[in-house]
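seq/struct pair 1
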Amino acid sequence: MKQQELEQRVTTAVEHATPDKLETVLSECETRQHAIANLAPQRKKKITGWLRVCAAAAAVVILFVSVYFIARFRKDTAVDSIVMLDVNPSFSLSINSKEKVLSFDALNEDAKAVLGNMDLSGVSLEVAVNALIGSMLQNGYLDELQNSILVSVENDNFERSERLREKVATAINHCMSSDQLEGAVLSQTVRSTDAQIKALSEKYKISLGKAVLIQELISQDATLRFEDLAALSVNEIALISHSKKLAADSISQTGTVSAKAYISKDEALAIACTHAKVSKQDLSELEIEFDSEKGVMIYEVEFRAGTLEYEYDIDAKTGAILKQETENKTGAASGSQDSFIGEAAARDAALQHAGFQETGVTFLHASIEYDDGKPEYYEVEFNVGNKEYEYKIDLYSGAVLSFKTETDNAVAPTADPASPTTAPGSYIGETAAKAAAFAHAGIDEAAVTKIKIEFESDDDDGPVYEIEFEKGNIEYEYEVDARTGAILKYESEIDD
């Protein structure tokens, strides 16, 4: 309905609702006119003027009442403030000056699931907030593992915005405490003046308030990426912020953010020390922080032991080592091998990882690989039956940096008493990865030739098994998630 049509309908309604006293007033004026005329006929013209004054006064009253009701209607239908709620579900509520909900938006799929069939139009802000919080509690989006919610209020009047922020935060705290949940409520006031922030909120289907918070954290730590944080819950963002000691000046917080879903810092450190084969007592320059990698919460563990610096990325939920780097800080000239573990130790590290003894392998080879004259790692290669193994071993620590295997089924296999099936950390292993690829392709392993398997863990794809194999004249290439067994990529082509 157009605004002009709406105003006309309101005016008509007001006119019908207003008591019509004009005829009564005119009648009384006319009676008075006759009475006065009988006594003083010479005043007839003044009586006519009085009649006109009465009519004008009545018209003014009607106009005033109509304008009043139209103004009130406009005020009741005008957006006064926008209240945003973010957990991982994200909501936006537009309210009028009486704190009645005019419209509401579920900004992502999780929010749509929480909203369900609820219609919040016309209800009070407090009722709407309680309904949404109750649904998030019921559907498991708020619990003791993820207990944090972000409240953002947008209003040009700062005092008005602050009052609303405090009111909503108080209502949420009361609602969660009624459910015996010790929640953490983060609240802020925002403005929509930044077009870039608004565009980011729309792109990642989050509220303007969450986008403002993320951007503020990134401004303090350039290593953080918007796309990574946008995929996280408010609870996870808060943990990262607190761990990195980032100060969001606009944020007010009540309650403590939960870290119960993750292993502790001490546990993450113990995992790193065990892998590096060092004692906690020997560590210096220790730093442990929450961070995220492609939507996965991790611990970044950095420390120094002797002349070696270690960096670990550890899955904050499972404790799996996702990434590891070691660097020698002796200050020796590039290419110096004084502190290298040696080829023999590199061979032992590869064989131990693969589960073989040196007597059971053939074509054993180990050497230092160089890049632009700088030593990078030990490369260890060996064969067991119809399998070829290739390892990259850290020069200083002996850690397995990467490994790959290739199988040629055209060659009759020999005994393989300890064939490795498990990659470093909590991975599914080669056997399971192959089975996932063969099942997806609909191929029996017995019909496959020239199988090649490579384990890789990098910043782009994470830990994956890269599997290549042939059946007849068809070549297949697969990438299988090393933790879950999910098929990430696959290709097949006919080799003419």
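seq/struct pair 2
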Amino acid sequence: MRPAPLSFLFMALRAKLARGRKEGWTIATTRLMKRKTTPGLSVAQSIKDCTDYGKNPVKTEEGKYISAYECDPATVDAEFLLWKSRYKAATGREQKADRDVLCYQIRQSFLPGEITPEDANRIGYELAMRWTKGRHQFIVTTHTDKAHIHNHIYYNSTTLDCTHKYRDFLGSGRALGRLSDTLCLENGLSVVRQPKQKSQGKYKSYGEWAKGRERPLTFQQKLCAAIDAALEKQPSDLAAFLSLMEQSGYEVKQQRGAISFRAPGQERFTRLRSSTLGKGYGQKDIEAALSGSQRGTDQPGQRVNLIIDIQSRLQGKGPGYERWAKVFNLKQMAAALAFLQENDLMEYGQLEKKAAEATERFHTLSGQIKSAEAALQTNRELKAATVQYARTRPVFQEYKARKYSRKFLAEHEGDIELYRAACADFKRILGGAKLPKMDGLKEEGRELAEKKKRLYAEYRKAREEMREVTAAKANIDYLLGYAEPGRKKEQER
């Protein structure tokens, strides 16, 4: 049997996808789609048809959950078209109607009952802003007509400055999905993985799949919660910690220096390691936390496993969570936690040292740049004075040879004054030292300019590192109760 032609297979795939869409089936919880001109419709009608679906009053509760950037939701289709006209006028570029992407659509779904429409719209707006970097108009519509709240985001393919268009790239869908997952984590929401597209030969919509899913905790998640609960009781040592775990119903096994746990009904033991349970739940992490609890964690600078402590507080555990939750948001602390993990900072002292080092390096580079700029300015003044001196010296020599003739002075007063000014600059800058040659000054200027350029690159990097580490430290200080937001630091006496 001859294999089916590719065109036939492609048509069959398109038919299957169309049938799935008709039944409400979505391929993924966050998806990026191109919207082109609809056959039989104009460009204006195609854009309006697309955005009108998102703005459907029935789905958005009479337009209550609609937000926009650099456009009016009521006239978004006309404004998209206006910017495309400006793009054509500015660049002279025109693409074939069947190939031109009018706008892009992002579909973002959330688990049923986990988020409010207001928060969903806010997260959708932030997703669009981060994805487009504020360079494209967009509208965010939140639909509440299904069991799962979801966003439809439309952004203009043409940039706001009308210089170019957004171009899709390989892996853009995965990049968008990672960005959406990051936002969900920052806001304390579940990260929903792609559901199975097929179940007993019948396709299910995401809403059907999510609605019927009870989402029980895994054994690993239950173990992490039990570890957190045990650490909250501040056991004195590892033996006390293991005793608490046994009291909570876990079977403990120690073999060749490794510790494993098994819950009732669990077939296999789960080893205490970060690769299985996640960062902050390795054996070394637990031992570090126990070591910190022995010495107390009331004062900064003492050893304490920040990863475990912060994760516990992010989950709403610990006495200081309620106070912290009124001031900070999960986005700030998620960024701080990611910084600690990326830099392997497990102790407060390490974080404090890194912040001090970053600040010192920033100020050192700042001083070096100022010195280089001062030297470069001096070099420029010397070169200018040298040129001025060389041009006016013959005039002054002639003036001297004529025994300082008043008539000659009146005729060449400007050049003579410039000569004297150049000599004064030499005296001020060199202090009587020998005048350097012009070639040497030019070489010195090139070296100083290159040094300044190099230092500025290091300076910008150091400034960003200092901002990142000091921001993370400030958030962690507030979370751990070492400082209060808005409180001014007391000046050193």
